[in-house]
Amino acid sequence: MAERLINLDDRFWNRLLKAIEEGQVVPVIGSQLLTWNDQDKMQSLQQRVAMRVLEFYKVDATSVTLTPHRELHEVVTLLKPNANLQDLYGDIAEALDAVTKEPDFKLPGSIEKLAAISSFKLLVTLTPDNLLAQALRKRFAVNEIVHSPNLPTSEAGDLSVDWLKKPGEVNLLYLFGKAKSTPVFAIHDEDTLEYAHNLLSRGSNVPLRFLGELQQRGLLFIGSNFPDWLSRFLLRLTNQTRLADKKTRAWLVEDANIRPELALFLRGFSRETDIISELSPQDFVKELYARWLVRNSPASGPDNTNQNQAHDPLNVAFFISYSRATDLPAAENLYQTLREQGLAESEIWFDRTAIEPGGNFQKLIYDGIRSCRYFLPLISAAADRFDEKFFYREWNAALDRSKGIISKV
After folding, report:
1. Residue 69 gets which letter from DSSP?
2. What is the DSSP string of 214-269?
3. Does residue 3 register a pLDDT over 70?
């Protein structure tokens, strides 16, 4: 293999995590992460959707051989001569909706782990489904930004100017559209080419502010599985200068079938781009998530006996917010009541320690608010007499997050 060898040692992970925690890395998520094991057989969302579309058109799936993670393009190519292309968008959107609403469907574990890394405030998905948004919305308010040349102008969006001042919100860009019943998302390679051209030409609905932020940050491409030409294009598009003068880092986390031509090109013309194929995209996210948890583990008791035990954002159910000066006994009683109901200590975010000005605990507190399923504020007349206390900031952060949560009746 021609690419520069990357040693995935502690120094590599610490450097990457430090950059992530500083907001200098944006994950770009591809179809290889949308997979799960079903009876010891690897399944992918794209494969399941493609099979459902073949059923719609009464095509025997056993007579068709499809390339992994290229199934949708190949099914559209197969059906296109005899099908109405406009109808195919609606059929694919319907198939996607049907697959994700099956009783036994679960969000892929890799997507949930990635979404739980609260240091990510900007994310990009290369697929038209909303699975990443679903995972993020369990813990954050999500501002979804869709790039599509055919999207009505009234539905177009971009990063807000003050996005960094919204601690409970993350921003998710659908680079190739989001699935709907109309042609506003990419379903085959020619669509992808058109979307890429629209970005390059600064055509319709291009999120210029989001694109500008991508050009100033390192990009972590995970499981994109794109053709060689598109991988090169995306790297150039998200860089302010030509690749030979690239100032920001990029990492391509792909399965082991990296194309030698791409590796040779990057070695010669994009020395700041590293190919990582030692770990699968799923294993890479698993390792990244585990190490992030260790680095972001708050103390869990008054004597800090469990200081090195990480709070897992995927497991936190309740966040108890209270005024330490007036309501600590009531908060202790609430905590004990939850424990008596069978909740584990790791499922309850309860800080018994004082918040020091400028301390890292403030970041940990905000991470806890973004990660919990239920926010429990203790409101008392004594606490209400304060004009300014840190718990007011906690409540405001929780309100910020609640604005992005869609109620389901």
Report:
1. T
2. HHTSEEEEES----HHHHHHHHHHTSSS-GGG--S-EEEE--S---HHHHHHHHHH
3. no
Query: Do 316 and 371 touch, CB atoms closer than 8 A?
Result: yes
pTM (2 d.p.): 0.76
Q: Which helix (H) or strand (E) holds 281?
A: helix 281-295
Q: What number of CA atoms fall less than 13 Å from residue 123's CA on the CB side?
A: 29
Contact 191, 143 (CB under 8 A): no
**Tokens read off for 255:** 């399965």
pLDDT of residue 214: 92
Question: Which residue has better confidence, 178 or 309?
Answer: 178
Domains of the chain plus CATH, in order, are 10-32+110-181+199-292 (3.40.50), 299-402 (no CATH)
**In sequence order, which ranges of 80-188 are alpha helices (DSSP H)?**
85-100, 109-115, 131-137
**Please, how many CA atoms are within 13 Å of residue 191, restricted to the half-sphere of its CB?**
25
Mean residue pLDDT across the chain: 83
Angle at which helix 189-200 crosses helix 228-237, to 10 degrees, equals 20
